[in-house]
Amino acid sequence: MYLLIILLPLFSSLTTGFYGRFLGFYGSSLISSLFMLVNFILSLLIFFEIGFNNYIIFIDLFSWIISNNFLIQWNFLFDKITSVMLVIVTFISFVVHIYSIDYMKFDPHFSRFMSFLSIFTFFMLILITAGNLLQLFLGWEGVGLVSYLLINFWFTRLSASKAGCKALILNRIGDLGLIASIIFLLVFLKTLDFNIIFSLTPLLSTFYLTYFSFSIHYLSIISFLLIIGAIGKSAQLGLHTWLPDAMEGPTPVSALLHAATMVTAGVFLIVRFSPLIEFSTNALNFLIVIGSLTAFFAAFTGIFQHDIKKIIAYSTCSQLGYMIFCCGLSCYNISLFHLFNHAFFKALLFLSAGSVIHAIKSEQDIRRMGSLVSFLPLTYIFMLIGSLTLIGFPFFSGFYSKDFILEIANLHRNTNLNFTFGFFACWLGTISTFFTSFYSFRLIYLIFINNNNSNKNTCSNIFESSNLVLFLLLLLTFISVFAGYLFKEFFIGLGVDTWNNLIFYSPQNNYFVEAEFLNLNLKWVPFLFTFFGFLLTTLLNLITTKFLKFINNYSFLFFINKKWYFDYFYNKFIVYPLLNFSYVFTYKNLDRGFIELIGPVGVILVLKKISKKLIYIQSGQLTHYIFLIVFVLVLLNNFLILFYVPIYLFIIFFILIFYI
Asked: Where are the domains of the chain?
């Protein structure tokens, strides 16, 4: 059962990929959906056996790499962290597969699309079930590769091709950190197995690497390198620019990418390596800073975006920032809880957005929508509930995890141990709730409530999605509302032994008990900021003209609208200089210059010059030819006698034999 849950998506991908043209639309739909359904049922059984019965399953298949004094096995680790991720990945993947049957039914490459979705799921399952870091890295690189194939699925569009390349390259930058951490662990520990690494970590807590007069904490180096990998994969500030552009892929890809697979891999990596990262205070503080800045930046940028999918993409980036800085606060289980809730309501938002886009002829600019509540009432309800869950409205799923993260940040702010970073996380996270509420309700107003700005032809053909899609959205809505309440005790309940020996908390960073006794006024602060965001959105929506004049008069808002010029900075100071250097130096001087000059081009030029010189020797007179032949033979004879007598004798012997 444990191996089958990993292999089924691979079988599905190979079947629909190689035999899709023979299976057709219905065959590919049936096989891929059936395999994902079986996978989800198996994940529920694993979750029941491991999550509720406190088992840990370790499967050691065979040796992978054997070299001198280290051994890397092909093994799988199924613990509670893995079981939670299995439920998320398989359920969202199953829903996306079913949703794609309706959304992509007119695409001529439907079988290829379903194959890519299945292999995406397969590599994510390899990542979360890995028992060693190298096997995790295999799944890590696999989801990065398939994300390129899915983002670039409509490869005839230049924007999709550029977005796929951008995602691949920026993820490779982050992957360098993960590769470096693998090298460090191999050099010093001679192993990559999680069980051995985590058991040896306390012994290395006082180990330093000395370079000249500098001493660097060994575990801090490993932690920073792992965090760099997580920053690239989970689109944190600095390497986040690929995530909004990844919306060039089909909407089901966006839902799977943001809700369950690729962007959650970075958070999973940090949670998995909590027994190591927890020993580095600097790494924890770095997580707080980068996560808080990402949550604030993405939420602030999202309020000025106009593409419906990019707004939701920036909300993903912001929510991932909450998860990252929550890990920096040593609350890995709360981060995992928010990841669990986020998967469902983010899938709901993306698939609802896909329903809207599908209904209005692939239009994604929210400024060209409006009054859709009368055409798409069910989609409006689903998207409203998803938005309420996203902003952390009381008693929805997001409320139980997101508000608890801010409460923990408040506690860190009130302690002398971590005052600066706790203060930083608390207030940036709280302000981000204001912007989250602002862009969420702005989305609702411009799409469903305001006056319609589309043309007559579009309005005459607006329709609700099929019953299948509506059923999936209803299912996601139900889970988004109740998942937080139902699983709160499992993830963060006091006295629950869910994460014993799986997630390590430093004693001085454990504030779960104190969070229950936090001042009630402080607990109301995030909700008040959320409510103010709703009020401001409503107010500005009523005075739209004045608000637009306000935006036009202040250039700093244009600066925000351009995503803080991160893309401009990268292109101006990194990409273009590298391209110019590559063209002028490596291409023109090396490839087309030195290498070709000493290679084929140089040989051809030399032969041409020699042939031109030999032309002057061809005089046409027999006496000249006889003289030249005799002269060359004399020179050759003297040269061979002096230096190559054996060769000379061999030539004479060969000539004699041939003559005889």
From this structure: 56-79+130-561, 562-616, 618-660
